[in-house]
Write a structure and sequence with these properties.
It is built from 12 helices and 12 strands. By secondary structure, it is an alpha/beta fold. It folds into 2 domains: 31-121 and 261-320, Periplasmic binding protein-like II (D-Maltodextrin-Binding Protein, domain 2); 123-258, Periplasmic binding protein-like II (D-Maltodextrin-Binding Protein, domain 2), CATH 3.40.190. A hairpin with a 2-residue loop joins β1 (2-4) and β2. The longest helix has 13 residues, at 44-56. Bound molecules: glutamic acid. Residues 38-39, 42-44, 73-74, 92, 123, 153-155, 181, 199-201 line the site of glutamic acid.
């Protein structure tokens, strides 16, 4: 079966066309594109919404209609793009790297058709704990109830990689949770967990919700072993969760982060990818106002932190506008 202008054609192609014209539906019906994101209270979901809003402004001219889907996160998005069920997705750059190279969660399962569109904004690996849980360093997770992330999330993938580097086993925890991102703040408030990890762009509604309902502490993730772990991987960078973003957390807290990358696959046509890139970049100043996590991004920074090759449709726009020579 092939997808053409949003209509699925099987062997009955001619019959379908006859039916389409009999109903006087335009022969070139809209092409639908879907962006996979993350939990609705995270930063991926509003990012997908912001992108679709810009893309849909041009739908009369482009015939492309964009919709956004809440999903389980980075790993889920790549697997679903690979299967052709999603056209685009927001994905952590460490997960992009592993999928394209066939390492980590993608060991022996290289996603060769994965393509980058742009590296949108920085995400920081954030350890949110209940204040009364007495967790002051990353090593204090031992014996505690900690949510690592649902299978399919980038959080879980990065948490397990970090644990490995620090010599922490999930069996060292009293409970290693697999709750979805949207469920984490309530679980923290209800004292079902002592803390959770979230790789996310700040400020995010998810952590605001948590800090408004229970006293929370953003726990530093640092030390010699963390430094080594960050240096060993090209897609990690050290950074602080800025102070003043969440109630009770006025100082910056050291950790490390990645980029949130918009990805697609070689199965998606050049026109669709070009249209998405053009919609964002032709309206870049407006786009930047759509979420505070974008406050420091530049057109140039969109090209930093890409670990899969650029899609041809994206490359066309970047070359036309001189961003890539
Ligand atoms: N980085 C997270 C993940 O891949 C999602 C963050 C978000 O939804 O903003 O699981």
């Amino acid at each position: 079966m092939m997808k053409y202008n949003g209509i699925l054609f099987s062997g009955k192609k001619l019959a379908t066309i006859a039916l389409v014209s009999a109903l006087s539906i335009p022969a070139f019906a809209a092409e639908f594109i879907t962006i996979g994101t993350g939990g609705v209270t995270g930063t991926y979901y509003p990012t997908g919404g912001a992108i679709c809003r810009l893309v849909n402004q041009y739908k009369k001219d482009t015939n492309i209609r964009c919709s956004v889907e809440s999903t389980g996160g980075s790993v889920y998005n790549i697997n679903t793009i690979k299967n052709g069920e999603l056209d685009f997705g927001t994905v952590q750059s460490d997960v992009v790297y592993q999928a394209y190279q066939g390492t980590g969660k993608f060991q022996g399962d290289k996603v060769e058709k994965l393509r980058s569109v742009m590296a949108i904004y920085p995400e920081l690996f954030t350890f949110v704990a209940r204040k009364d849980a007495n967790i002051n360093t990353i090593m204090d997770v031992k014996g505690k109830r900690i949510n690592l992330g649902n299978p399919g999330s980038g959080n879980e993938s990065t948490a397990l990689a970090l644990f490995k580097a620090l010599g922490i086993k999930t069996s060292d925890l009293a409970f290693a949770g697999g709750l979805k991102a949207a469920e984490m703040p309530d679980a923290l408030r209800d004292n079902k967990i002592d803390g959770y990890f979230y790789m996310v762009g700040h400020p995010t509604a998810n952590i605001k919700d948590a800090s408004n309902s229970v006293d929370v502490k953003i726990v530093p993730i640092n030390g010699k072993k963390v430094d080594k772990f960050v240096k060993e991987h090209p897609y990690f960078a050290q950074a602080d969760v800025p102070g003043g973003m969440y109630k009770g957390n006025d100082e910056g807290v050291p950790t490390f982060g990645v980029k949130a990358v918009l990805v697609t696959s070689t199965d998606v046509n050049d026109k669709a990818v070009y249209t998405v890139v053009k919609a964002i970049l032709d309206n870049f100043e407006d786009f930047k106002k759509l979420h505070p996590a974008y406050s420091n991004i530049t057109k140039e920074s969109l090209l930093e932190g890409l670990s899969a090759p650029l899609h041809e449709g994206a490359l066309k726009y970047y070359k036309e506008t001189g961003l890539i020579k």
